Amino acid sequence: MNEQLPQNLAPGNAVPPAPAVPPAPAAPVPSAPVAQPPAGAPAPGAPAYGAPVAQPGPAFAFPTGQHNKVHHSYIWLSPLLGLGAAVIIGSLSSIESIVQGFMYAGEVGFSLLLILLFVILGFAVLYAIVVGITALAYKHLSFVFDETEFSLYSGILTKRRVHVPYARVQSVNHKQSIVQRVAGVCTVEIDTAGGASNKAIKVPYVKLNVGEAIRADLFMRKAYSLAAEAGQPLPQAYATGQVAPGMAPQAFAPGQVAPGMAPQTVAPGQAYAPAMATPNLLDEAALGVGVDNFRGLYGGNFAGLEPISFERRLDNKELLLASASNGGMSAVAGVGITVALMTAILAPLTTFLPIGTKEILMFLPIIIISIIGLIVFTLLMGMLTTALSYGSFSVRRRGSRVEVERGILQRDFSGIDVNRIQSVVIRQSFIRKLMGYCEVSLGRIRAGSGEEQSTQANLNAGALVVHPFLKLDQVDGLLNGLLPEYADRPISTQFKGLPAVALRRGFLRRCLWHNALFWVVLCCIVTQIIFNVFFGQILAAAGAEAARVLPLVNMTCVFIYLCFVVQAALIIVGTIWWKRGSGFAMTEKYLALCNDGLGTETVYLPRQKIQDVYTRTNPFQRSAGVTTIGALTAAGVQGTTSFLWDVSEEDGAAWLDWLKPRTQATAQAPERG
Amino acid sequence: MPMKALPASQLDPRVKNVWRLNDALWITLIMLPLAICFFIMTFFADLAGIARLLFILAIVLWLVMLVVWLVVLPPIRYARWRYEITPEYLDIAKGIFWRKRYIIPFIRVQNTDTRQGPIMRAFGLASVTVSTAAHEHEIPGLDASIAEDLRDRAAELARIAREDV
C-alpha cells in the first residue's frame, strides 16, 4: 500500500525548502505503515509552492504517473458521517419499544444498561463493517497525474477510471463540511466544460494542502499542455512555479492600480494593499481563534498559487445587514404563510363550529405572542444561517481567476476563470433596494449532477456570489478590481429606456394576464355566481348545515378578492418602477439588460458568451409597435435566458443586428466605422 | 417602422404535408380514445343521454381540430417560417401569433446535424439542427439533399467563422 502523504509530496525537480514555512508535523498513521514514494526522495520541508526553483522547468507536487492516495480519514470519517444519521434515527425509533419491553419484565436498571451496551455494540459492529468496506474502497481509490490527463481510479468490484485532459480542466473547487474541517480534509471538485453532460470529478477526503496542491498542479499542467499545443515557450515566471502564464492583468503591476477603481477601496495612484481586505467582526474573531485559518488536524500548510491582485471581504456593517435582510426576508415569508394558513383554517371553523368573537378574542393574546415569537425566531435563525455561511467571506482576483471562499462552519472554496464567466448579475431584492444594497454574482456553466434534474428555478444556485451585500455605489469599485476586463461594460447613462406604451401594457400583463391570482379571482366570480344564482335555494332548502355553505363560499371569495386588491396595488407600484428603471444597453463588447420593479436585476453579458439573441412578439405587441428582446447564454446547466419586455421595434432590430459578427466585410460598412 | 425584412429562404413546400400528417396523427390519438369511451358509455342505459351528447361533441371537436390544423394552419405556418444563412450568422423567423426572430452567429455554433423521422423520410425531407452551447435550433422540412448541403455549409461556416473586429 502506497500511503502518499503530502509532506512527502516530492516535486519533480530539486526544490530548496521554503525557509519561512515551518515543516508540517508528520501525521502519524497508526494502522498503515508509511511507504515512501518510489520516485525521488521526499522533500525535506513543506511542499514549496511559490519558492523559487533553481532551474526553470516544471515543479509539480505530484510526480507524473504516480498513484496518489486520498487521506486515511476517508476510511474512518466518511462512514461516521453516514452512520451518524442512522444512529440518531435508529436509536430514537427502536430504544423506546425495547425499554418498555424490559421494564415490563421488571428488571429496569440492569436491563437498561444491557440494552445500552447492546446498542453501542451493535453500532460498533456496524461501523466496523462499513469501515471495512470503505477501507476496501480506499485501497482502490487513487488519483494519478499522467503526462496529458488527470485520472481518478475507483471501484471495488467494478473498476472505474474517470479521466480529464489537463486542457479541459476549468475550475478546481473544494468543500469542507464541519467534521471535515476539524480533520483538516476537504473534497476536491474538478469541473470541466460543464453543461448537462459533463459531471464534475470528485476527489474525496484529501488534506487541505493536498487539495490546494492538486489545484496548483492541475492549473500548471494545463498551462504546460496548452503552451506545448501552441508550440510556445512558457513564461519564465510561470516555469518556476510562481505565476500563472500571462494572467496577471497589466494594471496590477506594482505601483499601479486598475482604472476607475472607486476611491473608497483604493485612492488613485495607490497600489493594491492588503488593507483593502476590510475584515468584519466575525472575521476578526475568527482570525483570533484561528477559525478563518483553521486548517484542522491534517490541514497542513497553505500552498499558494499566483499572486492576489485584489481582495475584498465583508465589513461589519455589510455582514450584519446581509444577515438581517436575509433573516428579515425569511421572517416575512414565514409569517405571511402562517397568517394566511391560519386565516384559511380559522375562517371555515368560525362558520362550522360554535366559535364566536368572544372565543377568538380570548385566544388573541396567545396568537399575537406566538406570531411575535415566530418572527423573532425566524429572524434570528435566518440571520444566523447567513452569518455562518457568509462569515469570513473573501473574494479574490488571483491571476486569471476569481476565487470565493466563505463559511464559518462549513467552508466552501469556489473559483472561476475570467474567460468562463457567462454573465455578471447585480440583483436587488425589495429589502436590499430600500437599503440601497445589492448582491453581485457571476453566471457560470454548471455541471449536471446525474441524479437531480435541473430546473429553471435552481439555476441561480449555480451562480457564484462574489458579494452578497454591497452598497450600490461600491459595485463599480468591486467590479473594476475583480474584473478589470469588464471596464467597457455599459454605464447607467448608456441604458435606453422603454417606450411610453410599455407602462399600459405592463399594468395589464402583470396585474391580469400573467397573474395567477387574477385567474383564480375569475374562477371565484364564476363559482360565486353559480352558487348564488342556481344553488342558493337548493342549499337553503337542504337544511341548516347546507345553508352554511353559501356564506362560506362568499366569504372565501371576498377574502381572495381582498388578496387580489392588495397584490394588484403592489404590482402597480412595481410596474411603475419597472417602466421607469428598466432598459437595455449595448456597447462594443457587452449587452446589458435591466429589469427594474420592486426588486431590480441588471445583467451584463459579454459578447463572446452570448449564444443567440432573439425578439419575440405577440399580436398585441405588434399592434403597439413593441417587442420582447432576449439573449441566451450557457450559464447554469441548460442555459439562461435574459429578456426584457416591450422595447420599441427599432430597438428590437438593433438588438438583433448587434450580434451579427463584425468581420472585415461588415466592418467596411459605414455604420461600423 | 415595420420590422425589418424577413429572411429570404423558405422551407420545402412538402413540409406542409408532413405537418398535416403529424398533426392528424396526434389529434386522432387524443380524440379517438375519448370518442370511443363515450360511444361505449352510450350502451349503459342510465348514461345514454349525456354520453351520446358527449360523443357527438367529441366527434365535432375532432373534425374542427382537423380542419384547423390540416387546412388553416399549415399554409400560414409555412409562410411565416423563414430562414437565411449568411456567411456569418443564421437568421430564423417563425411563429404565427408569437413571432420569434433569432440571430445565431456561426462562431457560437457547436455542431450541426441532419435529422429524419419516419414521416419526413416518406416525403424525402430532412431537418437540419444547429446547436450552440445553450440551445438547439431546428430547421424542419428541407429536401434531403438540400439539408445535407445546408448542414455541410453550416458546419464549414461554423468552422471558419472568426470575429475580426
Q: What topology does this entry show?
A:
The complex is a heterodimer of chains A (673) and B (165).
Chain A: E1 67-69, H1 73-105, H2 108-139, E2 142-145, E3 149-154, E4 160-165, E5 171-176, H3 178-183, E6 185-191, E7 201-207, H4 208-230, H5 236-239, H6 281-289, E8 308-313, H7 316-352, H8 357-390, E9 394-398, E10 401-406, E11 411-417, E12 423-428, H9 430-435, E13 437-443, E14 464-471, H10 475-482, H11 501-513, H12 516-541, H13 544-547, H14 549-581, E15 583-586, E16 590-595, E17 600-606, E18 610-617, H15 619-624, E19 626-633, E20 640-648, H16 649-659, H17 664-667
Antiparallel strand pairs in A: 1-2, 2-3, 3-4, 5-6, 5-11, 6-7, 8-9, 9-10, 10-11, 12-13, 12-17, 13-14, 15-16, 16-17, 18-19, 19-20
Chain B: E1 9-10, H1 15-41, H2 48-80, E2 82-85, E3 89-94, E4 99-105, E5 111-115, H3 118-123, E6 125-131, E7 136-143, H4 144-160
Antiparallel strand pairs in B: 1-2, 2-3, 3-4, 5-6, 6-7
Helix pairs in contact in B: 1-2
Structure description:
The complex is a heterodimer of chains A (673) and B (165). The longest helix of chain A has 37 residues, at 316-352. Among the domains of chain A are: 74-139; 318-389; 505-579. In chain A, 43% of the residues lie in helices and 19% in strands. With 673 residues, chain A is α+β, with helices and mostly antiparallel strands. Chain A contains 17 helices and 20 strands. Chain B has two domains: 11-79; 82-160, Pleckstrin-homology domain (PH domain)/Phosphotyrosine-binding domain (PTB) (PH-domain like, Roll), CATH 2.30.29. In chain B, the strands form two sheets. In chain B, strands 1-2-3-4 form a four-stranded antiparallel β-sheet. In chain B, strands 5-6-7 form a three-stranded antiparallel β-sheet. Classes of the chains: A alpha+beta (673), B alpha+beta (165). The interface between A and B is medium-sized, with 35 and 30 residues. Strand 18 (610-617) of chain A pairs antiparallel with strand 4 of chain B.
